[in-house]
Specification:
four-stranded antiparallel beta sheet, 22% strand, alpha+beta, single chain
Length: 225
Amino acid sequence: MGKCEQCIIKQFNSLKSLTKEELVRISSCKTSKTIKKGEVIFEEGEMLNGVYCVKDGICKLSKLSENGKDQIVKMVVKGQLLGQRSLISDESSNLQATALNDMEVCFIPKSEIIKDLQNNSKFSFDVLKEMAHDLKEADDVIVNMAQKHVRQRLAETLVYIHDTFGNNPDGTLSILLSREDFANIVGTATESAIRVLSQFKKDGLISSVGKQIKIENLAGLKRVE
């Protein structure tokens, strides 16, 4: 098991503000786990007893709507923390976290993180900044849902995946999402997402290799209205 104080991942989140002594203490009580693709890390409504630091892999955060449909709210990537909001608010999780590919995560118990939030103001401020950024992103999602139609939202999602996660050696997007996942990200029916993706193919914006998607015209996707 790696040591927190030597882990490069901490540089990408608020854990970078902890002192070496604090990191050594956390390292002695954290647990590392491998999560398989499709596995649920935590359920909506679950009480979280700590935070997860994503060492490798990607997960989706989703919420079940009243009609039983998942709405994907966010994708969390390597280097980010999971569950900090529930921890600080002392409420059950508002979202479900599901692995999109095989993941490596480290679980840090609640008591340890709370101790550091109370004793290290730089760490507390960094956590606050991350949560403020999450709020800003949530605001943008609400506005996008209200003001942009499905074509534009889907094009932006493809561009975001390309820019954030990159491509496989064959040029296909490195993250394999199901058509249902795409629909759940942009807030539409799966049939609508399939229809729009087919239109993007006809327009020469994307192509597909099996279930994988390859962007053929990035500038064109950015211009979709």
